[in-house]
Design a protein that fits this description.
CATH topology of the largest domain: Immunoglobulin-like
Function: Subunits I and II form the functional core of the enzyme complex. Electrons originating in cytochrome c are transferred via heme a and Cu(A) to the binuclear center formed by heme a3 and Cu(B).
Bound molecules: copper (II) ion
CATH architecture of the largest domain: Sandwich
Keywords: Copper, Electron transport, Membrane, Metal-binding, Respiratory chain, Signal, Translocase, Transmembrane, Transmembrane helix, Transport
Pfam family, one: COX2
Number of domains: 3
Number of helices: 10
Structural class: alpha+beta
InterPro entries: CcO_II, CcO_II-like_C, Cupredoxin, Cyt_c_oxidase_su2_TM_dom, Cyt_c_oxidase_su2_TM_sf
CATH superfamily of the largest domain: Cupredoxins -  blue copper proteins
EC number: 7.1.1.9
């Protein structure tokens, strides 16, 4: 096939595609206009914008558009060639300029991400170890940003500066031992520093030397689909044993009341922590793996069925102080689940409140004991007299007062 014939074929093909695109677009436009005048009200496109098909078609249309432009340019170049003229478009220059442009736009993108989205990160860490974690993150971010920016400037600037030029010949430079040593040793030192820092920080979080004068408060949190159950230790400071075999309708956590430590344990609707006091969470799960996640305290640990995991930390900022710091009167610390554990995972959360030690003492004294008279009956323990107060609740619950006998040993 001669070149001329090829060109005429390509020109024909390109014109045909352009014609089809143009006629179909105008046909669509006419139809839309006709529909609009017929009903005399604008068409609601919102449901169409929500479909995947719309975006797939839009993408295909874009591809078609790019292909048409490409074909048209190719036709232009081949025409020039057959007419004996020189190259019409200097692609080497265009590519070089695009590289330079990409560098500028990319670097601006990095700056924009840091300044705009950087502010959307979590507020300052509200725990002792959280500050260390943030420091580590910041150091890593500073080092990687410097390396990222420097290498990308070099990469794109070289692509621009050393674009093809027929006057120039590339210098053959296959190997340099010193250069290889430098770019191996420097990253090795930096990475060793980062890994060691991470290792030591991790050890300081998980291997604590217990101070007998400042013992942590033990709180147990049990996860299940889809809730968190909180158990406070009561006056003895120890949460009692539990056993999944003891789980019943009235003993949802399976607490073992043969263990003396369980007797004064309390249930709570929210997690309340005293500020600047260490707290040790024991975490268990009833069904699947959940993840105990308190972002403001930089705490995250899986809760696993069949084993207990622990996390000890010290909150440093009260909820009231955080409301002022974040300038948000509705600010709340939250416990969230960070494992995709089922359909209602997204809603698995619990409010956490950090208060002064005095407020904590007042709050904890008001919490309900886990051990009810029903449970006492099950575990064959002496029953207690029901409190005579709370008459509103008594209407619905107290059905047989004669059975509520105080049996004191
Ligand atoms: Cu969960």
């Amino acid at each position: 096939m001669s070149l001329k014939r090829l060109i005429s074929n390509k020109t024909m093909a390109a014109s045909a595609v352009l014609m089809t695109a143009f006629t179909s677009t105008s046909a669509f436009a006419q139809e839309a206009a006709a529909a609009a005048t017929a009903t005399a009200k604008p068409i609601d496109m919102t449901p169409i914008y929500k479909t995947t098909l719309f975006y797939v078609l839009a993408f295909l249309l874009l591809c078609l558009f790019v292909a048409i432009i490409g074909k048209a340019l190719k036709v232009y170049e081949l025409t020039r060639e057959t007419e004996g003229k020189g190259k019409g478009i200097n692609w080497d220059k265009i590519n070089a300029v695009l590289f330079a442009l990409f560098l500028i736009v990319g670097l601006y993108g990095v700056y924009w991400e840091y300044t705009v989205h950087g502010n959307m990160l979590l507020p300052e860490a509200a725990s002792v170890h959280g500050v260390k974690i943030d420091e580590m993150l910041n150091i890593t971010l500073i080092i990687t940003t410097i390396v990222f920016v420097a290498t990308h400037i070099v990469l794109f600037a070289f692509a621009y500066m050393y674009r093809y030029n027929k006057e120039r010949k590339a210098y053959y430079y296959p190997h340099n031992n010193t250069l290889e040593r430098v770019w191996t040793v420097i990253p090795a030192i930096v990475l060793t520093f980062l890994v060691l820092m991470g290792f030591l920080t991790w050890r300081s979080i998980f291997y604590k030397i217990e101070d007998p004068n400042n013992k942590p408060i033990s709180i147990e949190v049990t996860s299940s689909q889809f809730q968190w159950d909180v158990r406070y230790p009561g006056a003895d400071g120890v949460v009692g044993r539990k056993n999944y075999k003891l789980i019943t309708a009235i003993n949802a956590l399976g607490i073992d009341f043969n263990d003396k430590n369980s007797m004064d344990d309390q249930v709570a609707d929210e997690i309340v922590l005293p500020v600047n006091k260490p707290v040790r969470f024991s975490l268990v799960s009833k069904d699947v793996i959940h993840s105990f996640y308190m972002p403001h305290f930089r705490v995250q640990l899986n809760t696993v069925p069949g084993m207990t995991s622990y996390f000890e930390f010290t909150p440093t900022i009260t909820t009231a102080e955080m409301k002022v710091k974040t300038n948000d009167p509705s600010f709340k610390y939250l416990l969230l689940c960070a494992k995709i554990c089922g359909t209602n995972h997204y809603n698995m959360q619990k409010a956490v409140r950090v208060v002064s030690e005095q407020e904590y003492k007042e709050w904890v004294a008001k919490q309900v004991p886990y051990l009810t008279n029903d449970l006492r009956e099950t575990f064959k323990l002496p029953l207690l007299a029901e409190p005579t107060a709370a008459p509103a609740a008594a209407d619905t619950t107290a059905k047989d007062t004669t059975s509520q006998i105080a049996l004191k040993k």
